[in-house]
Amino acid sequence: MSTERPRTPLQWRDVPRLFVIVWRIAPIVCSFLRDRRRWIRWGDPVPRSAAFHERRARAMVHHLAALGPAFVKLAQVFSARTDLVPEPYLTQLARLTDQVPPVPWPILRAALERSWGAAPESIVDALDPVPLAAGSIGQVHRARYQGRDVVVKVLRPGVDVIVLRDARLARAIVAWLYRQWPHHHVRGFAIVLEEFDRHIPEEMDFVREGMQCMRMRERFANEPRLRIPAVEAALTRPDVIVMEFLEGTRIDRLDAEIAAGRVSARMLTETLIETYARMMLRDGVFHADPHPGNLLVDRQNRLVLLDFGMVIDVSVTTRKALFDTILAAINRDPDATAAGFYALGMIATDSTPPEAMRDLVATLLDIAYRDTSMADRAKVLAERVMRELLNWPIVLPGELVYFARTAALIEGVGVRYDSHFNSLRVASPVVLRLRGELLSALLGDDGHREPIVTFAATLGALAGTAMSWVTGWSKRLQSASGERHIS
Fold first, then answer.
1. Is the pLDDT of residue 471 over 70?
2. What pTM was estimated for this model as a whole?
């Protein structure tokens, strides 16, 4: 789906930084290469114990954190790439998220003064020098503006130059590695870096973030279950954004509220599914940084969506291919599903034998449709499929990675609050309820029609097939539930 950007030649001033990066990551890379070849190019694999993987994962995270904000931000991206990164490395990368010390207040205040052209205290009131949050890209402080509670998010001074330079160098290093070891997983890392390099300048442009936030707020203006902060456009600059302060509890810290009956876990997951389905399939504008820190629930049980720095446009072509693949999976057709993988750009090389892809898809469909508990299916996925997937020639394009991150977030939230949570039972009626709305948007009935050859037939078949599939799945669930009670 994505096209590779031309490589920027390395400059002499980059050499010292390149040396530091290589010095930090070369031992880790060599260690991973020795998992396959003892002497890098030849020899048997070096035996690795679980304890060794834990130690190496911690060492890897230590070196990435030492390399600064660009690599901390990259860790966020890779922490969702189960197709590229196995456990325990995923868990360790997730712990690295935003482990960046805050910028001292005098430095940040000076940056604010330069951006606004006046003392910050003359622009906003009660500006708190203690940060509300400190991330790898920006730092957030509370304040008041014209009697309203706001947050002031400031780009870390100089971070744009550092991140762009390090992203360029990381791409160069991985490109060199791919020339030496043209393995599909090395290519997968290269694609991630290409996506990162493409979108990270957008995330560091707070004017763009403000526009995306206002755009999303307008699209969901009539949704009473969702809150998106208002933007103070008059105070927003490329390196400063001022937004409405919205209070709430992180979506992964609602145990007490759910236990007391103040929040419905079922309604929460339905709202999540409906919100993200509308973003990706109706609007084609996708909030691509879905993690618990960006999702809150307020006292009125409304979902609060924050941080629009990473917003991705999803083309109609991608959405059509995704729907075709979903339809094939619902029909349990491994050949058509594998064809959908090709259409979505998930296959790393054209030389991949079609029968190999069919075998992988058949395995995934078999597990997805097993009449077992969710815990049993998750165990099989963790122990069998995810381990085997690392050896399959599959690379997820950027849009699908973000969509998969959202699916994983929803599944994680559902399971956290309901051990018997089944995403199929929750998602299916939501998608069917949105069918007409999505049809209108995807077929261009709003006056922006785009040529889609088979999509009308596909959606028609999807509606009927999905209804019979949901009915059959419900019966199987009832049967399985009855067997559990009998046993």
1. no
2. 0.75
